[in-house]
Amino acid sequence: MRNQRLVSVARGAVHNRCTSQGVTEMKAVVGDRLVIRSRHLDEPVRTGEIVEVHGKDGAPPYVVRWEGETDTVVIIPGPDAHVEHHTGGISSAHNTQA
């Protein structure tokens, strides 16, 4: 049995579905990379492989194995995260308006 932890994220991160306001939905498939930018200067960027997708049509939550770790976590990414697809495209969970 694999060891999993549930990772909590900022409230509202899942409700980024209002595309009329410039917000994109996060979509992923197994094998994509989840990248979470640091919120502080002294924290590294976290990157991991998405090993399971539990949401409908590629939406979160995801099971992720972070680089350098053997355990997996269940995560609903916040607005500081994006998905890097196999093809190199990016799906983000943050506001895309400038």
**Main pleated sheet:** 7 strands, mixed
Contiguous runs where pLDDT drops below 50 for at least 5 residues: 6-18, 94-98
Number of DSSP E strands: 7
**DSSP helix count?**
0
Distance between the termini: 45 Å
Q: What would you call the shape?
A: globular
| CATH uppermost class | Mainly Beta
Using only C-alpha atoms, the radius of gyration works out to: 13 Å
Strand ordering within the main sheet: 1-5-4-3-2-6-7
Describe the structure.
A hairpin with an 8-residue loop joins β3 and β4 (62-66). The protein is globular and about 35 Å long. The protein has one domain (4-89): Roll (SH3 type barrels), CATH 2.30.30. The chain contains no helices and seven strands. It has strands spanning 4-7, 33-36, 46-53, 62-66, 72-75, 81-84, 90-92. A seven-stranded mixed beta sheet has the order 1-5-4-3-2-6-7, with no helix packed on it. The protein has 98 residues and is mostly beta strands.
Fold blueprint:
Elements: E1 4-7, E2 33-36, E3 46-53, E4 62-66, E5 72-75, E6 81-84, E7 90-92
What's the short version?
With about 100 residues, the chain is mainly β. It has strands at about 5, 35, 45-55, 60-65, 70-75, 80-85, 90. The protein has a single domain, classed as SH3 type barrels, CATH 2.30.30.
Which descriptors apply to this entry?
98 residues, 7-stranded mixed sheet, mainly beta, SH3 type barrels
